[in-house]
């Protein structure tokens, strides 16, 4: 198992910055060389040029020679991944656009599969002797918490047209397999005001407050509009430093919030021996959401997809089975009344009828007039749609109880016997 630590690359000298930016530009050139080879082969032969053949052809290119061979190969592997997706879509008859060339003045990510850590805890970016003679070495200090870790690879990404760089360290982490029970399950309904509504078969129900994300997004939009107005007044087109700083702050804040939510949920799973996590999630929901213009805007500005990936990675590390469950009609059907929860778009095109309905202040009223939390009702229906067995009578009692409201922003990252921060 591997963890990833990401941060902004700082403290480069002017010479090191120029060398790094130039390498990222050469990486863009190398990507375009790889794209050209595969595209031309496809146009002429109507066949796929695989990575191995592309690598053979590309070795004589000047960009390949200037870059470290391992770095150039990683770039060609990324090109190969893009074309595999293209050909996979063509194979099933889906609409597919052939990968296009990168802009002339752009930059591309560098991946270093092997680095040698020095005694002082730093490392030099791998580069060809020819490049090193012209631009010099680039020395980077490894984060202190990773000095004793086994580094698998380092990824360096240009940001804002190469004005800044972010760096990711992929490192090996100890695989932990705690004793968990598959019969113990956690069902999660993602939303806006309640970022995550959680129901467990072990007796808990709680709502993780998402209003802080709404607040940060509102503040970001207001401040960015002010900065944009200043730019427009002076006829500036590119992002200003203040805008870049604002974007970074917003992204880092939301990323930190999601990490805390993931840690909180996984710690609860470990504490209660929960062996299955089920998340209601539809991959196309942001494009197709129809919950009102204002709510649509709020929903699309919250990166639920990124959160799902983070939670999945953490669950896999600790041996918790993770499932994404199609969630149509889960908010409309009544769990207490055993309503059938259909899949949107399948079956007869008739208006679905359910026993209860959602009423004021996030409450759901069942057929007999029982009020339950609407989001917890949705989480229960997600569990139901998963098809796993559970005690219906017991779950009804859990759904009826008042869920605990939790403000993640006020909680600290939980400390456990295992270091959850490793794969954040």
From TrEMBL:
<keyword id="KW-0238">DNA-binding</keyword>
<protein>
    <submittedName>
        <fullName>Transposase</fullName>
    </submittedName>
</protein>
<dbReference type="GO" id="GO:0006310">
    <property type="term" value="P:DNA recombination"/>
</dbReference>
<dbReference type="GO" id="GO:0032196">
    <property type="term" value="P:transposition"/>
</dbReference>
<keyword id="KW-0815">Transposition</keyword>
<keyword id="KW-0233">DNA recombination</keyword>
<dbReference type="GO" id="GO:0003677">
    <property type="term" value="F:DNA binding"/>
</dbReference>
<dbReference type="InterPro" id="IPR010095">
    <property type="entry name" value="Cas12f1-like_TNB"/>
</dbReference>
<dbReference type="Pfam" id="PF01385">
    <property type="entry name" value="OrfB_IS605"/>
</dbReference>
<feature type="domain" description="Probable transposase IS891/IS1136/IS1341">
    <location>
        <begin position="169"/>
        <end position="285"/>
    </location>
</feature>
<feature type="domain" description="Cas12f1-like TNB">
    <location>
        <begin position="304"/>
        <end position="382"/>
    </location>
</feature>
<comment type="similarity">
    <text>In the C-terminal section; belongs to the transposase 35 family.</text>
</comment>
<dbReference type="Pfam" id="PF07282">
    <property type="entry name" value="Cas12f1-like_TNB"/>
</dbReference>
<dbReference type="InterPro" id="IPR001959">
    <property type="entry name" value="Transposase"/>
</dbReference>
